[in-house]
């Protein structure tokens, strides 16, 4: 199994857990859990593959669907054990973001795509599944929440994957995942954020 395949499996599993936790907050049935888990776990990878003119990972290998459904079943019977399901979603999502960005950017680089496409594929793979989850659940998407880094984490992580070989850092995928997660975790814990637009009255 390749590194990219392992990263894909890991990102599908962890993102699927967040989707199932969202379904638990909405008090859905087991089919609803499976829908949210698969939508979240496979959304980013599907978008990446379609943009790169590849067969989506879950069509090429249905085992990815089983991973999503397995995560849904696990959460269906254990969600009540979490003291704060929203907090669990935040941290699982942060971990999944790092792994998914590494999978998306790494695959694009392996296909000899130009650097700008590598950056876009890292962002798309990391952000699309969670965006779909939140939109369908009628919640404010995490990628758009004011005062938090999210897409920026994916962008910097993807750039780290591109730069790692140039500066002699081994295991570029792990560096990408680690930096992406560290930035997202810092945003959650310390409130790291980019400056936001402040409206001002027009000049007379």
From TrEMBL:
Highest rank taxon of the organism: Bacteria
Name the UniProt record assigns to this protein: Glycine transporter domain-containing protein
Subcellular location: Cell membrane
Pfam families, per the entry: Gly_transporter (PF03458)
Primary location recorded for the protein, binned into one broad class: membrane
Record's keyword annotation contains Transmembrane helix: yes
Membrane topology according to the record: Multi-pass membrane protein
Residue ranges of every copy of the Glycine transporter domain listed in the record: 6-79, 90-163
Keyword Protein transport belongs to the record: no
Residues that span the membrane, as ranges: 6-23, 30-51, 63-82, 89-108, 114-136, 148-165, 171-194
Annotated PANTHER family: INNER MEMBRANE PROTEIN, UPF0126 INNER MEMBRANE PROTEIN YADS-RELATED
Family: Belongs to the UPF0126 family.
GO CC annotations on file: plasma membrane
Assigned keywords, A-Z: Cell membrane, Membrane, Transmembrane, Transmembrane helix
């Amino acid at each position: 199994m390749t590194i990219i395949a392992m990263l894909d499996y890991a990102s599908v599993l962890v993102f699927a857990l967040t989707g199932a936790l969202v379904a638990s907050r909405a008090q859905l049935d087991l089919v609803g859990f499976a829908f949210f888990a698969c939508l979240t776990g496979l959304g980013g990878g599907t978008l990446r593959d379609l943009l790169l003119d590849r067969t989506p990972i879950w069509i090429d290998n249905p085992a990815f669907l089983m991973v999503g459904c397995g995560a849904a079943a696990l959460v269906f019977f254990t969600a009540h054990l979490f003291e704060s399901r929203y907090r669990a979603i935040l941290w699982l999502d942060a971990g999944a973001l790092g792994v998914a960005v590494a999978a998306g950017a790494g695959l694009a680089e392996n296909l000899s795509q130009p650097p700008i496409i590598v950056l876009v594929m890292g962002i798309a793979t990391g952000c699309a599944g969670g965006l779909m989850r939140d939109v369908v659940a009628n919640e404010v998407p995490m990628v758009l929440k004011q005062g938090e880094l999210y897409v920026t984490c994916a962008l910097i992580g993807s750039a780290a994957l591109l730069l790692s070989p140039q500066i002699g850092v081994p295991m570029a995928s792990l560096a990408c995942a680690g930096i992406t997660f560290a930035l997202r975790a810092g945003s959650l814990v310390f409130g790291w954020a980019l400056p936001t637009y402040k409206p001002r009255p027009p000049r007379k």
